[in-house]
# Entry
Amino acid sequence: MRTARELCGFSQIVAAKRLGYSNSSKLNKVELASDTNSIPFWLIPKASQVYEVSSDYLLGLADSWECLHAEALQSQIERAIQQSQSVQNNPIRQLYGHVSNIENAVSINLKQTVEFKDLVTRFRCLNPGFDNELKLGAKLLRMANETTQEANKIAKQLAEYHSSIKQIIN
# Structure
């Protein structure tokens, strides 16, 4: 503990205050190992932070005082960021898959709706009395047109959602 304090260039008084003691007498006892039965458990991690050394070094389990080499620390940070992004993107990727499935279903529905509208229009052309003689003929034609327009709107909205989600994932 004393070596770590000296590596930082702290006096015993300064170190004691940073460790949370009101005076240096308790720290002196810890450093001299004169009162090993009353060393508080919280002191080791706190001293590790204050002195910027590993807990293993303070306990005499490691010869190197360094907590982690900069490259190892950078690698750990990068792994944590990647894991975080992976966890965050999972629900978005699932949503992307669901939107893709819905978009495919709407595309099929749109093709069928357009085909239905074309059939009604062709039937109307082949039957000159369609508008006047066929009951509900005009309403059938109007519904075919409105259904096609609505299906086009839905397909367009889904394509925009699909594109937005794809940008988030990438």
Observations:
- The first helix runs from residue 2 to 8.
- The helical segments are 2-8, 12-19, 25-32, 43-51, 55-58, 70-126, 130-133, 137-169.
